[in-house]
Fold Uracil-DNA glycosylase.
Amino acid sequence: MILDIDNNWKKILQPEFESSYFKNLMAFIDEEYKNHQCFPKASEIFNAFNHCAFNEVKVVIIGQDPYHDVGQANGLCFSVNDGIKHPPSLVNIFKELESDIEIPYPLSGNLMPWADQGVLLLNATLTVRAHQAGSHQKKGWELFTDAVIKIISKEKCGVIFLLWGGFAKKKIKLIDTEKHIVLESGHPSPLSANRGYWFGNKHFSKTNFLLEQAGQNPIVWALK
């Protein structure tokens, strides 16, 4: 499989790409994409990196697995392609956006505009077999994405990490909390949100307040 990833990220992550675990992972992914329907499209596996250059990373949102139904996944966590029905977690993300910063509920669930402003929308596992949730977990992706978080933590300062739900919260051990800011809440999935662990976290307005305090441009969270 061709490693279709931004050159700056490629340089920073070269030790990972040269490791045995990553070579084994790429061999596995190559076979999966040849023999099964997998998501996202091969050209979009590294979209999170290709739409958010290392030097531009201001915010990191961590997801777990790509969506596994046809046409949904586009390489960014929680994001779906234009024209695709919004999955339940994304619906709740947008509801919180509405109440937090008083913007209209977006028509599109494509979060590419966030990525283009410096929001790294990083799934822990970057691929999945169609209709089989978690099918590419524990094949090496988690080692890679953990390394990404560690490198951001080590090489940058003042990044805002949004950790939503128990899985994401475990990643705090990879983050230097003296250099970076971590905001935690429940997951936006209906199970968590309906129990009161998601709504009202105000992570979008808090993130912009923190960015402005640091002299950086806030994120335009509004989508078309």
About this structure: The mean pLDDT is 96. Residues 79 and 111 are 5 Å apart (CA to CA). The two ends are 34 Å apart (CA to CA). The first strand starts at residue 38 and ends at 39.
